[in-house]
Specification:
This protein has 183 residues and is α+β, with helices and mostly antiparallel strands. It contains three helices and seven strands; from the N terminus they run αβαββββββα. Strand 3 and strand 4 form a beta hairpin. The radius of gyration is 24 Å and the shape is globular.
Length: 183
């Protein structure tokens, strides 16, 4: 009986301290949450033709923001590429998965200045699907905002990351469509 009374006293004391704010309860602070972007486009060209353009990890020169692509490792897992952007920025990436038969490749960013692209821990997949003689290209990515703590500045917020990635995908897919449909 003494043990039961001692336990009750401990519970009452803990509840009193908790309600007084002297005993830490669960933390309510929240850092960044993973953001996702998915963009799709229909291209009036067969999937094989579109894959010829996007299926080489070492060549992202079809994207209007890219001035030059340098890389090593071809389309093998862990292949590397460095994108030299027209605005002078650079992005270093690694190939994480390559499926030529499924017309899909996945990659991640290894290094980028958040002033160039306001994101962290970015991973992406681009895939091409046949759709009755046409193609549907899907480009999707997931990432955290550029500022990993609470209260980010506007240029490193979730919204800034979402807009930047969405703009990259949309401009790239529009350029891909123009290139594939003109050949």
């Amino acid at each position: 009986m003494t043990i039961v009374l001692a336990r009750r006293a401990c519970v009452v004391a803990a509840l009193s301290l908790l309600s007084a704010g002297l005993l830490a309860g669960p933390a309510f602070a929240h850092g960044p949450s993973r953001q996702k972007v998915v963009e799709k486009i229909e291209i009036n060209a067969p999937a094989a033709k579109v894959w010829e353009i996007v299926g080489n990890f070492q060549d992202l020169n079809w994207h209007p923001a890219v001035a030059k692509t340098e890389g090593t490792g071809g389309n093998a897992a862990d292949a590397k590429r460095k994108l030299i952007l027209k605005n002078g920025g650079t992005i270093e990436e690694s190939l994480t998965k390559y499926d030529a038969d499924g017309k899909s490749l996945s990659y991640k960013i290894d290094a980028v200045d958040v002033k160039v692209l306001p994101v962290n821990n970015y991973a992406s997949t681009i895939s091409v699907k046949e759709d009755g003689g046409k193609s549907v290209v899907e480009w999707k990515g997931a990432f955290y905002r550029g500022f990993m703590n609470n209260d980010p500045p506007p240029e490193l917020s979730d919204e800034a990351g979402l807009k930047a990635v969405s703009d990259i995908y949309k401009s790239g897919l529009a350029a891909l469509k123009a290139k594939a449909e003109s050949k």
